[in-house]
Each structure stands twice: as C-alpha cells, then as structure tokens.
Predict the 3D structure of the following.
Amino acid sequence: MVEDGPVREVLRRPRAPYTRELLAAIPSAASRGARLAGDRPAATAARGEPASPRRSDDEVVLEASRLTKTYALRGPGQERFTALDDVSFRLHRGEALGIVGESGSGKTTCADIVLALTRPDSGEVRLHGRPWSVLTERERRASRRLVQYVPQDPLSSFDPRWTVGQVLAENIPRQDSRAQRRDLAVAALERVGLTAGHLTRRPRSLSGGQRQRVAIARALIAEPEIIVCDEPLSALDVLIQAQVLDLIADLRAELGTSLLFISHDLGVVHHLADRVLVFKEGRVVERGDVDEVLKAPRHAYTRELLASLPGQALRTT
Ligand SMILES: Nc1ncnc2c1ncn2[C@@H]1O[C@H](COP(=O)(O)OP(=O)(O)OP(=O)(O)O)[C@@H](O)[C@H]1O
Ligand SMILES: [Mg+2]
C-alpha cells in the first residue's frame, strides 16, 4: 500500500508519485493532444508531446453509405429486427472517428460491415472510392491487410492452435526472413507492454488484458491504413491503457492511420477522437466534432449518456 485516505482526499490531492501517475493516465477532454503514460520505461520511444496526427480532411479513405442490416427474429410472424438503420459516414486519412452508444445499438454490427465480415442488406462501404463491401472474398483478399480489427472479444478471433508468435507473424505484410519476423513480433509485443516471453504462449493461457494487447499488436504489425477498434481498452488497467493510447497516437502521426473507435468510455473518446457518431437503436442520432458533441450535446440521448458518466465531477477539477 503506497497511499491511503478518504477517497476525495486521495483522488484530488494524491501524495504518492504512483497515485499521481495513475490519475495522470486517465484520458479525458483535458488530456487531448498530450501523452498519458509519461516517462514509464515500457512506453514507446517517443517522449513529450506526440507529433500531431497526419490528418487530411480531403482524403476520404473509407465511406459508408446508407448501411442497413436486419436479422430474422424467431417465432410467429417472422418479423425482422433492424440492427442498423440507414447509417452513413466518412473516415478521412489520419482521422479518429469515435462511435458511442448504448449496448445493442448496432456498433459492432457497423464495425463488422466495415470489415466486410458481415454483408449489409442495403447500402455500401467503399475503400479509397472503390467497391469494398460488394466484392467477393477472393477479390478482397489482397486489400484485407489494410483494414485491421481489434475485436471486442479477442479470444474468439484467435486460432486456438496458434501461439502468440504465429498470430503476429501471419499479419506481417512483407516476406521477411524468420529472424526478421521474430524481431518484428517482439517489437510489436514490447510496444504494447508484453515481452518476447509471450511469443510461445497460446492466447487461451493469457489474461484478458494480455489478450487484448496481443490483438492490438496483431493489428499494428500489419501497418494498416485503417484500424477498427471495438472496445479495445476495456480489459486494460489505466497505465497500460495510457501506453496503448499513446501508441495509437504515434501510429497516426507516423503512418497516417485512420481509426474507427468504438468505446463506452467517453473520456477515452474525448481524448482520442476528432469526430464522434452517437448510435441509438441502429441509427446515428448525433454526429460532429468531438468537443461540440461531448461538451454541448444537442440530442437528449447524448445528454443522458454524458450525465450518467461517473467521476465527471472529479475529472473536471
Ligand atoms: N447474428 C445476429 N442475429 C440476430 N441478432 C443479432 C445478431 N448480431 C447482432 N444482433 C442484434 O443486433 C443488435 C445490435 O448488436 P451489436 O452487437 O451491433 O450492438 P453493440 O452496439 O455492439 O452493443 P454492445 O455495446 O453491447 O457491444 C442487438 O440487439 C443484437 O442482439
Ligand atoms: Mg458491440
């Protein structure tokens, strides 16, 4: 135990350096554009202010137009349930687009369509202005690497027979030698706070947070143009989360990677996203600049979402 006391006292006026470090790592509106992980040794090489993301508002990398998805409901009448209803958005180069909304509002369905894991009933996703969601899997294969996924439930996306090393090696874009691939895999693990010792482990034997970090490393190693993240930080402690958020910022700066970032944590969204979409019952009920939407929400549902956020009073002090 490094510090104890009444909650307000400890959280508002932390004395132990470690408590200070923990509190400083919490993402929020105030931490936008700043590094969260400070000088922790495991953090990425860069220090101080992250380079600003290489954004280009003219270059649309991905466009979703009027996406709709329904599922058959069992039982009499055979009605269909609408999971996604007329959803459109654009993702620019280097941009981070946040998606927030209640459970069951269609966020993962939307991510799956963007990743071409699910076909929309109507509407279309285009990549660099060219067809994407309408292609056959064979036609898509060459470009698959460009759109990476950090799924909500990483375990189900790993082949249970594979080691972490195999999972990572498979996603390396170039035809490097075995030794080079191993070095790249170790570097990717270190960037997410894991070590070479994890290469021979199987994902099933890792903790939830470690698995999530392997999923993030797998996405990064492919040097993608777009990363679709579905609650990628939910199983991480606040310091590792800070490290991963810094890493994502570096990647955007270095490679101009775009993000579609689904999260229940509005602090994370405010820290990271440029624009945000608010989902409710399969529809986008509000959209816009992250500061505008989260500081001055127009839709009643967005206001409700913000009001229900615990710790808001502490964060703003
Ligand atoms: N394969 C399926 N068959 C039937 N219904 C489905 C299917 N997949 C999703 N749904 C339904 O579609 C709705 C949207 O699901 P989705 O997973 O997109 O929600 P979500 O916004 O990601 O929620 P959460 O925040 O809980 O992850 C839910 O009501 C879900 O039950
Ligand atoms: Mg989901």
